[in-house]
Specification:
Layout lengths: L18 E6 L14 E10 L5 E4 L5 E4 L7 E4 L6 E4 L1 E2 L5 E2 L2 E7 L2 E6 L3 E5 L5 E6 L7 E4 L5 E4 L12 E4 L5 E5 L13 E7 L2 E6 L2 E8 L4 E6 L23 E9 L3 E9 L9 H4 L17 H5 L2 E8 L6 E6 L4 E7 L2 E7 L5 E10 L8
Amino acid sequence: MHPQARLGRVARSSVRLCALVSFVACDRVDSRESEAAFAGDVIATSAEVGGAYSILPLDSGSFAVASDPQTGLVMVHDARGSGSQAIGRIGQGPGEYQFAWELERKADSILIFDATGRVLVFDSQRRFVRQFDSAIRSGFGTMTMRHDTLIFSAAIRDRERFGFPLHVVSPEGAYVRSFGAEDRSISRIGEALLVAKATDSSVWLARSHRYELEHWHIDGRLLSRVRVDRDYFPPREPTRSKPLEQERPLTNIQDIGVIPGVGLSVLLTRARSDWVGSGNTDETADHSHGLGKETTAKSPSLGSRLQWVEQVIEVIDPEDGRLIASHRLGSESFFVGLREDAAIGVREDRDGIERAVFMKVRSIPSTRRER
């Protein structure tokens, strides 16, 4: 999942608590490869998530949000988003954080990553267990691996770690190693990095501007690479005269995930063919809904952004990139991340309040592995 998703501003209002909508979408992303689509259930909740950076699914449909737009606290909501419980407190003492920018889960524990570099661990009952200072303080995402090792995805400028997108940190917070690049001469500053856990000792890595995924072992070995050829997603690289963030938004990878026993899921956000924009960064910035960067004061509302973008989830074969199935997401929600067989997003209600929404994958055609 891409964890740093700034979901926008929010105002307080009332809304119907929960709606469950079942649908089957049959959208051909590339008719030369597959017409298969998968079915999913969209679950809208009442939880306000405007300004949140991370939404973490938990057991029984509950989920945690960092941070609550009203209090700044990490909140756990029930499946409907109504009942809620705070985790920890705002402050600088034990069990306290100043700004929670990321959440991660390890077995029954919840890890809160504070902007100060502090990592706090809470048990399944939301009780504080321990905390430590991490050598890596921020990035595009984190995940827990075997033996409680942490991996951060971040672009760091110092000599030892320059050019590496992934960084290993011990359970005590000490820096261990960096990896994830064969060519360190390429700066990763400004790249949006997407990471998904493959096993307890390996991860999938992608960059938002090219449809290529790499499978890395935490010891630094590149295990495999899959390049996906799509007419609508030509490879792009930043240049000095035209950085990626200043290009007209075409197609970008929003997030990647792993569906166990099926394949890799890729959340794509692309501008519609009739998209118009002036190229002014104040007017066109943050079409990813704040993914990995701050929303400017002039950024358009969620509703206006959804008029000009469309989103598709593709499930691909990790061996050769073959399209297994696809699903075009509805225009009423904007999805920001993937977690195994679920997509996480936000929906604007009739009063302009942004609420958490989830799409649970219900079925994928059994013919997906035919050659």
